[in-house]
């Protein structure tokens, strides 16, 4: 959070990889980062050439878009938090508002991004219908969200907010966690956050799921780097749960990414 969309030229030059936003560079190597890089390829391939209109719903102050897409986008961010809006350095238009209620003119955008936001909304359905209306035909919605049935999802859903703040400060090492305008934000976990329900809702409302991937929550590789002992305990707990749950379950798959295309 609060990271501008700057280019890390040192990293970009060393690896000869396409330059990334700071938000992506800050994400530890792992499945979530790999999936975002795959999403970048989908966006590069599927988005129209030339200037783009992008709506970042609950955009906060950092973007996970590839820089080549970001640089040709007119970005409109809507966020309910004044500090997040103030800290946003990359949007051309920043609107203080609620994505569940805020409506744009129909067919205004090529791309809607709602990354780590739907778990905070009491009315996910209203937000999704607003996004759909605001999209041009063939336009895409990128959603990143936690999996409510994963280990991290269950803990997040059923633990009090002070525990989230403690985790961010002491395990993730984010000293400003919980201060005004800083993560973690209160979570709600509407039923549509469950991937199967989101998929069914999308299909019923003319949205085709063209990308879907469940990934290990980036908290695991982050913990393994920062707090190896704590991470070993959590990994052991996850392994026990995986052993007793139906074959193929991986409770570490804490997050998912989907791209929905408007028919
Ligand atoms: C976890 S942050 C994610 C921010 C950004 N998308 C990212 O991934 O870095 C959640 C964001 O959703 C915003 N938010 C929560 N409820 C909202 C609502 N009803 N309308 C608009 N924004 C909302 C919060 O203020 C916060 O900026």
The CATH C-level class name of the domain at 9-147 and 188-217 and 252-262? Alpha Beta
Which structural class is indicated by helix and strand composition? Answer: alpha/beta
Order of strands, main sheet, comes to 3-2-1-4-5-7-6
Choose one word for the global shape.
globular
CATH architecture of the domain at 9-147 and 188-217 and 252-262: 3-Layer(aba) Sandwich
* Residues in helices, as a percent range: 25-40%
Low-confidence stretches: 1-16
Rounded Rg? 18 Å
* Mean of residue pLDDT values: 90
- What is the terminal-to-terminal distance? 33 Å
Percent strand: 15-25%
What does this structure look like?
Helices cover 39% and strands 20% of the residues. The chain has 11 helices and 7 strands. It has helices at residues 9-15, 22-25, 31-46, 67-70, 82-87, 124-134, 151-158, 161-171, 195-204, 219-226, 228-244; strands at 52-57, 73-79, 93-96, 109-115, 135-146, 207-215, 255-262. Strands 3-2-1-4-5-7-6 form a 7-stranded mixed beta sheet, sandwiched between helices. α6 (124-134) links the parallel β4 and β5 (135-146). α10 (219-226) crosses α11 (228-244). The model is unreliable at 1-16 (pLDDT under 50). It binds S-adenosylmethionine (SAM). The site of S-adenosylmethionine has 20 residues, from β2.
Can you describe this structure in just a few lines?
The chain is of the alpha/beta class. It has eleven helices and seven strands. The longest helix has 17 residues, at 228-244.
